[in-house]
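PT: before anyone asks, these are the final sequences, not the draft ones from last week. 280 residues across everything. Please model them as a single complex and drop the result in this thread when it's through.
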Amino acid sequence: MAKRIMVVDDAMFMRATVKRILEQGGYEVAGEAENGHIAIQKYAELKPDAVLMDITMPVMDGITAAKAILQIDPKAIVLMCTALGQQNMVIDAIKAGVKDYIVKPFQPERVIDGLGKALGAS
Amino acid sequence: MKVEHIEPFVSAVFSVLETLTGAKAQRGGLALRNTTFTTQQVTIMAGVNGEIEGMALYGMSMVTAEKIAGAMMSCQCNELDEMALSAISELGNMITGNAATQLSQKGFNVDITPPSVIKGSNVEVSTKTPALVVPVSTNYGMIEINVALAENALRKAA
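LR: through. Structure below.
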């Protein structure tokens, strides 16, 4: 059965792009969220196998949301997928329990490889 | 506003556009602009905060925006609908994020805000500091990078 992934990004274009990459890579999109606050609610509701999370979003940023999801479910698999590649942000995310940090713009294979490794290691 | 602050934005436009669309870009000359200026037909605005604060604006014609959005979506784009505007906005997010990463490598701890897109020319924009401007010509037309940034008081005191 295909692994179910939740896509969190404020940009409709990115949600559509990532959705296409995931479906072509054999994954199922469990749901989408456009900010961190909605992501936390939908994570509890949808219980996806992994979350692809943007950082810069209105209402609640992705790092705050990832920390909240990992606090609720320490086994959650969260991968950041963001335009920001600052070392301090990467360290902060990894310390919080994030499994991978993908910097935009990315090649589709980077997302599929990152997810495969994160899900394979779980 | 220091010239070193705009360079990461110029190189970010080059690298992000090439990765997303394969387009090559060529930079024009640097100019200084007043704190109040008018927008082009399409302008992406993104805020920068932290040890350097201000705004980055990327202006272009409607035709250029439609061509770039079309290349990003791998389709012909004849109008800036909701999806095309989202693509153009994400372009601004990626450029500003890439520039912020380069600024952090130079020792400036900065973050960015989600971008907004202004559709419509002659909208007056005011920035806290005068903007440095670099036009960049691409396969899709010209993109004008306006960067109005200043080191904040905490950074200056450090």
